[in-house]
Write a structure and sequence with these properties.
By secondary structure, the protein is of the alpha/beta class. It has one domain: Collagenase (Catalytic Domain) (3-Layer(aba) Sandwich), CATH 3.40.390.10. Helix content is 17%, strand content 18%. The chain is built from three helices and ten strands. It has helices at 66-80, 166-177, 202-212; strands at residues 5-9, 43-44, 49-55, 86-90, 99-103, 124-128, 130-131, 134-135, 151-155, 218-219. It has a six-stranded mixed β-sheet, covered by helices on one side. A two-stranded parallel sheet has the order 2-10.
Amino acid sequence: MRRHSAPWVALAIAALAACSEPSAPPVAPPAYDPTQLSGGLLYRWPTGKTIAVYVDPTAVAAGVDLAGATSAGMLAWKAALGGSQFAFRLATSAVDADVIVHVSAAPRLVGLAGCAAPPDLAGGVTFLCPARDSALTLPLLAGPGVGRVKIDIGINPAATSAAHSLLALVTHELGHAIGIGGHSSDPADVMHAQPSVTTPSQRDIATLRWVVRQPVALRL
């Protein structure tokens, strides 16, 4: 079964202002292009950010542990950087979240903030809406409060298999959500377009380390 996942960035902008944070000392170049799927946009969370992730239980089938896969993927990415650049926590509601993870069969909890809808992909899709130098807040569609969601991740468990597990797919999409806007050509990397491994490889780690050391072009 064909699987394809990508950060879907609706390019409704003419130019981006780079920078608000000072340049860091040079690091090794990325192992693959982290802007390949984002139209050349380099995006990331501010250094030191604790990213709150809400896992929507709506339409999650029996036997599908989306929450468990998300928690494991979060731990894997935090461990990849030694936990120094950012941290994760599970949010208890969409209003308290920076990122929402849901199955693709569930209706989105947030609007598109004026950006084009992402395409229907077989495995997963990571969506954000840029404007000038930052991603727009995706408005909550129901419930109290405005929220602060910047990224919406849709996961299709039906696209997984023994070789391409739910954990691999969720960890892959979380990689897009933290700033890797590209795919690796090496199947040993979790950021391969058809992920089969469940933890970031040294190439994935090198790429993310490069991303988090760059000046901010698109703030999340």
